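Please decode residue identities from the backbone states below.
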């Protein structure tokens, strides 16, 4: 059975990815790498091994790779788009200096590597409607610069050294487990929390702003399916467009209102988030992922809304019950 290291295992995607990988490969075979001060807790801690791995410190990565005989690395360490604009040097250090460390070790120890890219790798000059797999990528955010560089560096290590690198361009990911931290698409998670709490939602993104979004279960399925795909079928590697839904704030609001009557939303546009959102695609062409490794999402906006509201109502009710005891 493969041994897997997840770097950034307590982050928004990493925390759920680690648990999903443990279902597939067995808890003992999936190592949760975390940075000091962000150690796994609860089921994530109890369900398998964990170790300090700082992507900017190659010795911590090498120690984990050797001690656990790692075959595949999911490198989830990154700063999200809004935070990266306020900390560009740190975003580069984690995103690219960190990736360099991962790829050098993958070369030395023959590991495969998954490092996510994003719709953030596209820029204002990219065709916005049905954004092609191969197209102009001139992002003007540091987040986007790190993601284009991630794609180029990952492809370089494949072509030059034969390292098995693979990647997808994640849309905005919506989850009910680990809240998002510092992204342009965070509003699409925050709106569900507001609806369940009975709060009026103040939307930071302008009405009519389309962005690609995806429910976390589909995002996890994409990452694992790609890493398990037959290498001989892959024409592209870093990174595949994947898509499941594209919506604007008023659309997700209407979807929630069908199940939460009286839910209110107003707009208070955040200029930085709006500028970033305006530079990203309205919709994506994911035909290559579908043909090269059978990508197929399971959720649409309506089924995601039903599941999100159900899960958050349980989560917030349990929390309230614990507090009241
Ligand atoms: C962000 N949630 O908003 C992330 C993601 C495509 C969006 O990269 O920065």
């Amino acid at each position: 059975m493969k041994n897997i290291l997840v770097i950034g295992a307590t982050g928004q995607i990493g925390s759920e990815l680690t648990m999903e990988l443990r279902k597939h490969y067995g808890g003992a075979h999936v190592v949760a790498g975390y940075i000091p001060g962000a150690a796994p807790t609860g089921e994530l801690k109890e369900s398998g091994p964990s170790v300090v791995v700082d992507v900017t410190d190659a010795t911590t990565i090498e120690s984990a790779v050797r001690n656990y005989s790692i075959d595949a690395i999911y490198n989830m360490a990154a700063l999200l788009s809004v935070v990266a604009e306020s900390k560009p040097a740190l975003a580069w250090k984690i995103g690219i200096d960190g990736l360099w460390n991962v790829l050098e070790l993958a070369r030395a120890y023959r590991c495969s590597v998954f490092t996510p890219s994003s719709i953030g790798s596209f820029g204002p000059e990219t065709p916005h409607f049905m954004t092609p797999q191969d197209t102009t990528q001139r992002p003007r955010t540091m987040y986007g610069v790190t993601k284009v560089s991630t794609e180029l560096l990952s492809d370089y290590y494949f072509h030059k050294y034969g390292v098995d690198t693979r990647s997808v361009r994640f849309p905005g990911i919506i989850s009910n487990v680990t809240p998002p931290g510092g992204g342009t698409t965070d509003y699409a998670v925050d709106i569900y929390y507001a609806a369940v709490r009975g709060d009026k939602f103040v939307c930071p993104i302008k009405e009519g702003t389309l962005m690609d979004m995806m429910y976390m279960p589909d995002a996890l399925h994409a990452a694992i399916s790609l890493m398990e795909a037959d290498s001989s079928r892959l024409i592209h590697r870093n990174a595949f467009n994947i898509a499941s839904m594209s919506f604007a704030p008023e659309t997700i609001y209407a979807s929630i209102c069908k199940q939460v009557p009286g839910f209110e939303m107003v707009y208070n546009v955040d200029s930085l988030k709006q500028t970033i959102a305006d530079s990203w695609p309205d919709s994506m062409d994911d035909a290559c992922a579908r043909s090269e490794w059978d990508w197929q999402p399971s959720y649409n906006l309506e089924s995601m809304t039903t599941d999100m509201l159900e899960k958050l109502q349980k989560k917030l009710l349990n929390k309230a019950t614990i507090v009241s005891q």
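Observation: Residues 80-81, 118-120, 143, 170-173, 180, 183-185 surround (3R)-3-hydroxy-L-norvaline (CB under 6 Å).
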